[in-house]
Structures are given as structure tokens and as C-alpha cells.
Design goal:
single chain, about 325 residues, alpha/beta, six-stranded parallel sheet, 15 strands
């Protein structure tokens, strides 16, 4: 029988639910251990998914020679420390976005990972969404011609807790970072210039941290295409996720996913169920596809859809957007990195 890939989970917060669930569904995977500084959180996942080893110190996972790979889904400020230790221990790495909020830290850890020769996948789950993959395919096969515009709408149903906002890095590095990466993926191109504007229209407390709850960005890409991204921390109708690529021969786009596809028609008009209300619902299949892709990268030599460079560029774009919003001017990516 083929040996299963032994994986250690580092981090047992909210996002762990979808990652652990996704890995547990893959027959070729054995989740060997889980660690979190809040031991009861790790124990809860262990009890639910039958994980034998539970720790409050991630180093016990790193030091376990039987573990082949680690899933780093802990807080952002711990990522580079854990990635470095994992790479030096020759363990393959999945790391949630962002790799870090400091560009020098990112460069340093990516150098360590490169020298170690292990696989690194960065957690940009939207690349693995079936709809987004179809958009990318339409660009790559030329069916819509040369891309000229990309439009991405990404709006959360409600603001996150203020304790989270304090340490998140702000809307451009926490929320829009997904859309920055998605734009690069869809257009198969690199950003050249960013112009951003932000406002605090929903939760005044967010403004006290120098952050925004509403933001718009225009990006000029090197091949000439323009991209518009808008983010809001409050969409009262649900989790609003749409994207479109417009080209010389046509366009391709994705719509929101509703709770079910029933549509009622009467004298009063058309009505249908609300759209899905949370990212864990909307992107569950994408997370599952991402997990399987990581396993195939380690066991079959597949290439990650999002690697270390993708993790770095998305952070560069976030800082360019922050600088643009503060200085009220377009910012070249070359000014940042």
C-alpha cells in the first residue's frame, strides 16, 4: 500500500475548520498532529477529526521525523518563524496568506525555503475556485481575445471584530490581498501601477486604526490591461463575490452563488434565495481543491498555482495601495519592490 502523506497542522483558529476538513477528506493524507498555543482549540479539532497528537508548541510537529508536510494556518506574525523551521527540517509547506507583513522577512524566508528544496504553496484559495479557473482558461486559450479590462467585486457581509482589525494589516493587506492575487492570476500578467482610494463609511472604529472599510483600486498591468477592484466590509445582502474579464472578442464573468438555484416567479416579479453569506461556504470547494493540489504537488510533482513569489507580489501590491491612498496619487510597483 502506498504510504500516506503525513501532515501536521499548525494553528487551530477559525480558518482551521475548512483546512482540516479538506485534508481529512483526502484518502492519501494522514493528519498526524495539530498544534496551537490555545491547547483546547487544538484539542477540539483533534477530537472532531481523530487527530492523535495534540500540542501547544508547534516545534513538536517540526521535530517529528514522521511528518512530511506542515499546514501553517496560525497568525500572520508567526508565519516566517514557522516556515523557516519547517524548511530547515525538510518539511513541505502550505502557508496561509500573507506570508508576512514585512517584505524583508518575506525575502529572507523565501531564500531559506528555496535552498531547502521543499515545496511551498501559499494559500490563495480563490485561484482554485472552479469559476475563477474558467475565467483564467478563457484568457489563456484566447477565446475572449486580448484582455483589456478586469473587474473584481469583493464585499464581506459584516466588518470583522476590532481586535482582528488591529493586527490585520488593514483592508489592502488583509482583504484585498486576495483580489490582488486573483487579478494577476486571471490576467496572467504583472501589475505596473496602482491608484487606490479608501474611506471609512461603515464602522468609525476602523478609522481610528488608520484603516478603511470601503476601498477602490485601479491597476495598470504591464501588457496594458486595466483592472478595477472594489472592497466593502458590509454587504447587507450576503458575501458578494464577482469577477469579469473583458477582451477584444468578448468577456467572461462569474456571478454570486445563491443558497439554492430555485427562482420564484409571480405577479410581484422574480425572487430567489439569498447569496451565500460567508467565505467558508462560498469557497469550500476551492479549499478542497487547493488541499488536493498541495498533496499532488508533494506526491506527484505538480506545480503550485500560488507559490512564494505570488505571496510576495500580493504584499507589494497591498503596500502600493496603502501608499497611494495616503498620498492621493498613482504608485508604481517599482517604488515598493
Amino acid at each position: 500500500m502506498t504510504k500516506k502523506l503525513s501532515v501536521g497542522i499548525i494553528g487551530a483558529g477559525r480558518i482551521a475548520s475548512v483546512h482540516v476538513q479538506s485534508l481529512a477528506a483526502i484518502p492519501e493524507v494522514h493528519i498526524a498532529a495539530i498544534a496551537d498555543i490555545v491547547l483546547p482549540s487544538a484539542q477540539a479539532y483533534a477530537d472532531q477529526f481523530g487527530i492523535a497528537k495534540v500540542y501547544d508548541d508547534y516545534r513538536k510537529i517540526i521535530d517529528d521525523p514522521a511528518i512530511d508536510a506542515v499546514y501553517i494556518i496560525s497568525s500572520t506574525d508567526t508565519h516566517t518563524e514557522i516556515m523557516t523551521a519547517a524548511a530547515q527540517a525538510k518539511k513541505h509547506i502550505f502557508c496561509e496568506k500573507p506570508i508576512a507583513l514585512d517584505l524583508k522577512e518575506i525575502d529572507t524566508v523565501l531564500d531559506v525555503v528555496k535552498k531547502s528544496g521543499v515545496t511551498l504553496m501559499v494559500g490563495f484559495n480563490r485561484r482554485y475556485d472552479a469559476g475563477n479557473m474558467e475565467l483564467r482558461k478563457a484568457v489563456m486559450d484566447g477565446s475572449i481575445g486580448t484582455p483589456e479590462m478586469c473587474i473584481i467585486n469583493s464585499r464581506d457581509p459584516a466588518p470583522p471584530p476590532m481586535e482582528y482589525v488591529k493586527v490585520s494589516g488593514g483592508i489592502f493587506l488583509d482583504m484585498m490581498i486576495h483580489d490582488f492575487d486573483l487579478a494577476r492570476y486571471l490576467l496572467d500578467d504583472e501589475p505596473e501601477e496602482i491608484f487606490a482610494q479608501g474611506a471609512c463609511l461603515i464602522e468609525p472604529e476602523i478609522g481610528k486604526f488608520g484603516d478603511y472599510d470601503t476601498a477602490m483600486v485601479t491597476i495598470r498591468f504591464k501588457k496594458g490591461a486595466l483592472c478595477h477592484i472594489d472592497n466593502s466590509r458590509r454587504a447587507v445582502y450576503g458575501y458578494d463575490q464577482r469577477a469579469e474579464v473583458f477582451g477584444e472578442k468578448g468577456k467572461v464573468y462569474t456571478a454570486n452563488i445563491h443558497e439554492n438555484n430555485a427562482v420564484k416567479v409571480s405577479v410581484g416579479g422574480y425572487s430567489q434565495p439569498p447569496i451565500q453569506n460567508f467565505f467558508l461556504e462560498r469557497y469550500l470547494d476551492a479549499y478542497r481543491r487547493e488541499a488536493k493540489w498541495f498533496v499532488d504537488c508533494v506526491t506527484k510533482g505538480e506545480k503550485p498555482l500560488a507559490g512564494g513569489l505570488d505571496g510576495k507580489v500580493s504584499v507589494c501590491m497591498g503596500y502600493a495601495a496603502i501608499k497611494s491612498a495616503k498620498e492621493h496619487r498613482p504608485v508604481l510597483l517599482s517604488e515598493i519592490c
